[in-house]
Design brief:
Blueprint (H helix, E strand, L loop, with lengths): L2 E6 L3 E6 L3 E6 L5 E6 L6 E6 L1 H9 L3 E5 L17 H12 L1 H12 L1
Parallel strand pairs: 3-6
Antiparallel strand pairs: 1-2, 3-4, 4-5
Length: about 110
């Protein structure tokens, strides 16, 4: 098992094993990070990782995973006027009125 040297924001340099470190890469932009729990203060540390660093860590046996941002982040923005306070209150009341909610759901199916 390889020894990995990293640095904790509070404790400074620490030594870890491959089982102590995880690598994550975003499927959209290929940005990578590595994370570990500091053996001294037990805080989780997350740091950016260049592709070369990701490759070295994975080659040494570090666990690798990918993640995707929520789809909501890719939705277009700026359609229509912002929701008003009154509209929010009306929606809240609708959710608590079973009959009105059922009618609204029937309307959405049409």
């Amino acid at each position: 098992m390889a020894t990995i040297r990293a640095s904790c924001y509070d404790c400074g340099d620490v030594e870890l094993t491959t089982s102590d470190v995880q690598v994550r890469v975003c499927t959209i932009d290929n940005q990578g990070t590595y994370s570990f729990r500091c053996p001294h203060c037990e805080m989780t540390v997350v740091k950016p990782a260049e592709p070369r660093t990701v490759d070295l860590l994975v080659a040494s046996g570090v666990a690798y995973s990918t993640w995707s941002p929520p789809l909501e982040l890719s939705e277009p923005r700026g359609f229509g006027a912002p929701i008003t306070h009154d509209e929010l209150l009306e929606f809240h009341e609708l959710l608590h009125d079973d009959d009105r909610l059922a009618e609204a759901l029937v309307e959405l199916r049409r």
